[in-house]
Design a protein that fits this description.
GO terms for molecular function: oxidoreductase activity. With about 250 residues, the protein is of the alpha/beta class. The protein contains 10 helices and 7 strands. Strand 1, helix 1 and strand 2 form a beta-alpha-beta unit. Helix 1 crosses helix 9, helix 3 runs parallel beside helix 4 and helix 4 runs parallel beside helix 6. The N and C termini lie far apart (about 40 Å). It binds nicotinamide-adenine-dinucleotide (NAD). The site of nicotinamide-adenine-dinucleotide (NAD) has 31 residues, from helix 1, strand 2, helix 4 and helix 7.
Length: about 250
């Protein structure tokens, strides 16, 4: 006996998926057969590697440039999805900006929190039709306080709040809403904070209970589970993809 996750004929929108964890989520969902929409604030040329990789492994991806902190732009992004595909089954609220990119607290709130709310609410009608799935990428730091940025931790906490809010309000429509809380994933976000990949590995050498840092695939695989039939009874849940930091602690 074997289990299969088949997302053929499903359409998935992943915000901030031009690179990093979002790009890997898009790639894993495409491997399972989903048509993925790559959304980013970066120009298409900057996302070309992600788009090319995905077209090798699954249905052709579709790119939409949109700043999710602008609700009018989000509305037209979802309108485009409706016109082009006629459906939307999955959204992954993944896009983020951090203080290391020079963003102000207000800008971080606008992208990290309001952006996720705009994408969710403007997708509601389509998700209701498909009994869709929403996954919000939060952060284990919300639950542990282990981060240097109050702006980051509080805006990610906002996304956690939205996850529980929409899980409660959309359950009656059969829309499942869950959160994934990664920690210490090697992407540009962490490289900006520590200066290099080597510096990240050095800093966390003795701090990860499982003995290694995280990679985008670790998070993407858990997102796949949450959008699949394997998690049909899960909503309002948060899954930690942190190598045990949250529940075991890092002093080993
Ligand atoms: N890397 C980690 O260690 C880590 C840990 C915990 C949680 N996370 C979470 O994982 C998610 C992905 O993080 P990452 O490390 O891949 O970050 P990243 O900075 O590498 O990628 C973020 C992406 O979001 C895009 N983006 C920024 N502003 C946008 C906007 N206004 N509209 C649309 N797209 C926009 C960026 O262009 C970029 O492609 C985030 O939600 C982050 O908070 C990451």
């Amino acid at each position: 006996m074997s289990y299969e996750i088949d997302l053929s004929n499903q359409v998935a929108l992943i915000t901030g998926s031009g690179k990093g964890i979002g790009a890997e989520i898009a790639s894993v969902l495409a491997s399972a057969g989903a048509t993925v929409i790559i959304n980013d604030i970066m120009d298409e040329e900057m996302c070309i590697e992600t788009l090319n990789n995905i077209s090798q492994i699954g249905p052709n991806p579709y790119y939409i440039k949109c700043d999710i902190s602008n609700e009018d732009d989000v509305k037209s992004m979802i309108e485009t999805v409706k016109e082009k595909f006629g459906r939307l089954d999955i959204i992954v609220n993944n896009a983020v900006i951090s203080v290391n990119s020079g963003a102000s607290y207000d800008k971080m709130f606008a992208v990290n929190v309001k952006g996720a709310a705009y994408v969710t609410e403007n997708s509601y009608t389509l998700l209701k039709e498909s009994k869709g799935k929403i996954v919000n990428i939060v952060s284990a730091s919300v639950f542990m306080g282990r981060t240097e940025s109050k702006e980051y931790v509080s805006t990610k906490a906002g996304v956690y709040g939205l996850s529980m809010f929409y899980a409660k309000h959309y359950a009656k429509d059969g829309i499942r809403v869950n959160a994934v809380a990664p920690a210490v994933v090697v992407t540009d976000l962490m490289i900006k904070r520590y200066g290099s990949k080597e510096a990240i590995l050095e800093h966390y050498k003795y701090k990860m209970p499982l003995g290694r840092v995280g990679y985008p695939k670790d998070t993407a695989n858990v997102v796949l589970f949450l959008v699949s039939h394997m998690s049909d009874m899960l909503t309002g849940e948060v899954l930690f993809v942190d190598g045990g930091r949250m529940h075991i602690g890092h002093n080993i």
